[in-house]
Amino acid sequence: MSGSPKYSTVTVAPAYARLEAERRRAREAARRRQEAQRARERAERAALRAREAAARRERARAEAERREAELAARRAARQEAHAARSREEQSGADVRRLAEVGELLGRIGAQDSEVRDLREQLGLLRARVGRAEDLGAAIEELRGRVVLLGREGGAPDRGAGHGSVLAGLEERLARIGPEAREHDRQGYQYCVGLLGELRAAAGPGGETRFRALLGTVEHALARHAATAGERAAEELRRADRAREAARQAEESAAAREADRRAAEEAERERLAAVLAEAADRLGVVRQSVQDAAAEAVELADPELAERIEAALASVTGALAAGAAAEALTAVAALEELLVGAEARLDELQLAYTRRMDLAQALQDAMLGEGFAFTGGAEQDGRLLMSFERPSGATYRTTIGTDGEDAVLLYQVDGEPDVLLRPDPDGAVCDRTEDLLERVHEAIVDRNDFVPGELGWQGKRSGGQPPKPPAAAKDWTWTR
Length: 479
Known about the structure:
Number of helices: 10
Shape: rod-shaped
């Protein structure tokens, strides 16, 4: 015959409680050591990343300095070339102006001390050409002295006719060239006007006027040539400055583009560094995470296993997508979850050990009462055990937990004192109850566990029978 299941809540004896407390402390210490090891590994990996980042920054700094040095060298070379061109242009202008002064001086026939002094001054100025000195004022002063002396000494080549002198001056104006006309229109027109006046004075009775105008014309021609040369040189300098400004603008644009690229590269490096940190931190805990998920399955906590696997997938997904901030946030959450999960798994392992110890105590006690052990299995966090008496009666036993306590649940089949249905006046299972009580006393004698009062549905008792454990309603055996 078989009846309703019989149950008993089991508490741990003080000695076993002390043993379990020692086991818990040992596991806590092991967790702390493991977390300290992970912290050291994270620190080592962070230090390695920092060294690699410093090496990259140093290489980038050296490369930037090399490029800046090359740019500065090119800039200095351009500036030197520009200065050399400017000096060359200035020297050319000074040479032309001194040549004009020398030509004016050559037209003076006198060879007195003042002329010799002017020639000496001219030689000194020619020697100073090319020394990057501003000779403009000194040349103009010398020119003025030469022109003044020419006026006082009369026209050069006095034996020559007015026509030949006029033709020579017109030829000098033509030799100055059309470019000079473009650069000094006012000076050209002034020279043309003076030549017209000189031509009018070349007639009869104009000797005095002709000689008076001659020095002015020569001075105007020399001045026109010098002004045109200066303006042509200034135009070249302006063009050179424009080219230099264009080059500087191009360099500025290139520098801005380089800064933009550098900023983009810095941002890429920052994101790469964050991804590398997340990957390193995942590498530190990944094996532990996988072990924890597997252990959660083994210890019948599939919800915890799913949470761990989902957290791991969040990290790997973010890393695969290159989402740096999300990866770092996810790996921090995974690290935090792992700490709590390992503490939870330690408690589950302690509970599993407690069930196994209780199962061993129960098996020893049942064998002591003549039972034969016919099999056992782990199912959803419970231990299922089967025993058989020589009479053929079977005792299928479930060891589970109800809160903090362990629970023994017996399903008995084949005992004559066990009714199929509870008696309205109270079911009597005297011989079965006595047998299980002896089993429980044998368990107590091991000094590990203390089974409580045995109860079942419909039990007659002088007091209030123990209530069945809430979780026991779902504990069913399947053959």
